[in-house]
Amino acid sequence: MPPKFDPNEIKVVYLRFGATSALAPRSAPGSVSEKVGDDIAKATGDWKGLRITVKLTIQDRQAQIEVVPSASALIIKALEEPPRDRKKQKNIKHSGNITFDEIINIARQMRHRSLARELTGTIKEILGTAQSVGCNVDGRHPHDIIDDINSGAVECPAS
């Protein structure tokens, strides 16, 4: 006999998919209700065209939705490029420019998920992600700024 249903049990599920308008049938057929799919579509509306992770917290058959963006998604959103269709274009390189202050803001948002001991290390992680995305920081290559941080030419905030 299966175990009894516990109304106090909390289940956390992470789903990762491209933010589109038709999420309900796509996410997991048969396991996610249409209302939850509509709520996910509403929560991911700002992230159109990007791959995004959604945290579903389910307790007593009620789902709470929280968008958990990755560092690359935050960088691409900060570039403010128009959304592109990922089906038509593969391996998109973003050639925009982002300010160092925006990098610091993204590092503060990602701080709790970073493995670095200090904010400086998190800033370097975000700069490395910016290099992978293909954008520049203040008109310079992100790795040049990492070298400047290591040499002490660029000051990073303490927290």
Automatic annotation (TrEMBL):
Keyword Membrane among record annotations: no
UniProt entry tagged with the keyword Disulfide bond: no
A single BP term in Gene Ontology: translation
Listed PROSITE patterns: RIBOSOMAL_L11 (PS00359)
All copies of domain Large ribosomal subunit protein uL11 N-terminal, residue ranges: 19-63
Task performed by this protein: Component of the large ribosomal subunit. The ribosome is a large ribonucleoprotein complex responsible for the synthesis of proteins in the cell. Binds directly to 26S ribosomal RNA.
Family per record: Belongs to the universal ribosomal protein uL11 family.
Entry protein name: Large ribosomal subunit protein uL11
